[in-house]
Amino acid sequence: MKIGVLALQGDFREHRISLEKLGADVSEVRHPEQLEGLRGLIIPGGESTTIGKLMVAYGLLDAIRDFGQTKAIWGTCAGAILLSKDVGKRQPLLELMNITIQRNAFGRQIDSFEIDLPVPFLTPSEPDYHLTFIRGPIITEAYGGAQPLLSLPDGRVIAAQQGKLLATSFHPELTDDLRFHRYFLEMALSESEN
Ligand code: GLN
Prior knowledge:
Blueprint: E1 2-6, H1 12-21, E2 25-29, E3 40-43, H2 48-57, H3 60-70, E4 72-76, H4 78-83, E5 99-102, E6 113-117, E7 129-133, E8 138-142, E9 147-151, E10 157-162, E11 165-168, H5 179-189
Parallel strand pairs: 1-2, 1-3, 3-4, 4-11
Antiparallel strand pairs: 5-8, 6-7, 9-10, 10-11
The chain binds glutamine (GLN).
The site of glutamine has 11 residues, from helix 4.
């Protein structure tokens, strides 16, 4: 199965490695025509304003918006921000998911943290998943088909799904645990709608 990783800025290499370990045929996407033939696309962590501006410069904003009407897209951290409809300030967004985001919700770089949490929808569901947050966002609202998927113990939402669109505040690509990437590959294979 062919999966693309948006390779404009951020930790796209780590996503590529995780997908390849699962046997996916991975290509780096920097131009709209490279979306052709892909079943899914990952938008990595990085800096969402920078990635958004580069998407505009490379003609990828509209192309990925079209791609996301029918195909699977997973955004991690900055990627989740880019999938959202609203971040409370003006910056280029794909506006594909019915979610509202608060950027840098946990504070500054020094407030980055890691936590182990049960994630029942992964296969296998044990052990707990090691979640890494690096100036991550939270999902303050999910509506109109977007469902909260995972929350911190204090209730703040850190993952949401809408059809084959997935947004996570954290970085599975920075762990050796491939269960989230496997979850995404299964989504990309499914025939469900967005
Ligand atoms: N703080 C970044 C942003 O708002 C996201 C950080 C990340 O992707 N690790 O774009």
